[in-house]
């Protein structure tokens, strides 16, 4: 017998904590019955467990892929407006992948998808400060002083002051400016809101790197599996060398 949340976590649905939340939210069924209380034990040989209506199988092999997300896709599995999901771009039969964090509908570039709940947790936990690098086309001519403001921290629309970041002007693009920005936190729509704070709204946003992993020459809409070494390097980058 095994505790339900542990079974779900082993199956790659999420961290133990996340799986407890899923149970509390009524997203988990055991033998067709929704379970919302903690402490339920299941027998993996006899009981059938479903998450969001789909059967869960314990200990799927861990798979992590890197997708170059095109514009016009959501990074959730379902969307209230019926817009296409990044999951539609990945055809890996029998493997249930979940996006690691979010990219906006219009944002392009590096998105990781995995069934490794622990990896997702480590990469997205604020404590680990994993570096995420973006190339952003900003409206207007961005000055050196504004680049320094982005680096030092700017105050967002909700009063939050961003943590130190790395920023560099790549160069002008017509009347606009291409910059590279590396942030070590992940507030909602952070790059767009930082750009607004210096009064140069984002015209186009692409994520090009997470920790040492870069998008490389992968075409938009294409994906590839990470190598074991790449996964290990990512884990090391967030202090998880298990
Ligand atoms: N920051 C944003 O504003 N949007 C993204 O999609 C990612 C980071």
Overview of the structural elements:
This protein is of the alpha+beta class and 242 residues long. It contains six helices and 15 strands. The two termini are 25 Å apart. A hairpin with a 2-residue loop joins strand 11 and strand 12 (176-183). Helix content is 21%, strand content 27%. Helix 1 (4-10) crosses helix 2. The relative contact order is 0.15. The strands form three sheets. Strands 7, 8, 9, 10, 11, 12, 13, 14 and 15 form a nine-stranded mixed sheet that branches. Strands 3-2-5-6 form a four-stranded antiparallel sheet, with no helix packed on it. Strands 1-4 form a two-stranded antiparallel ribbon. The chain folds into three domains: 2-55, Structural Genomics Hypothetical 15.5 Kd Protein In mrcA-pckA Intergenic Region, Chain A; 64-127 and 213-237, Pseudouridine synthase I, catalytic domain, N-terminal subdomain (Alpha-Beta Plaits, 2-Layer Sandwich), CATH 3.30.70.580; 131-210, Alpha-Beta Plaits (2-Layer Sandwich). It binds uracil.
């Amino acid at each position: 017998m095994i505790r339900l949340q542990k079974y779900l976590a082993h199956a790659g649905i999420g961290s133990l904590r996340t799986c407890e939340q899923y149970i509390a939210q009524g997203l988990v069924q055991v033998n067709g019955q929704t379970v919302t209380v903690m402490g339920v034990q299941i027998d993996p040989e006899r009981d059938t467990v479903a998450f969001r209506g789909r059967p869960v199988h314990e200990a799927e092999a861990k798979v992590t892929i890197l997708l170059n997300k095109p514009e016009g896709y959501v990074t959730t599995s379902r969307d209230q407006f019926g817009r296409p999901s990044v999951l539609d771009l990945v055809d890996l039969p029998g493997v249930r992948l979940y996006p690691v964090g979010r990219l906006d509908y219009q944002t392009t570039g590096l998105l990781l998808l995995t069934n490794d709940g622990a990896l997702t947790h480590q990469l997205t936990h604020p404590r680990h400060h994993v570096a995420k690098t973006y190339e952003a086309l900003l409206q207007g001519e961005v000055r050196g002083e504004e680049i320094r403001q982005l680096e030092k921290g700017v105050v967002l629309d909700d009063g939050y002051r961003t943590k130190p970041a790395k920023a560099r002007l790549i160069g002008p693009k017509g009347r606009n400016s291409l910059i590279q920005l590396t942030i070590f936190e992940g507030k909602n729509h952070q790059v767009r809101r930082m750009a607004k704070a210096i009064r140069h709204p984002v015209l186009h946003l692409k994520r090009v790197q997470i920790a040492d992993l870069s998008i490389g020459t992968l075409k938009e809409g294409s994906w590839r599996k990470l190598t074991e070494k790449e996964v290990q390097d990512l884990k090391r980058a967030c202090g998880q060398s298990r």
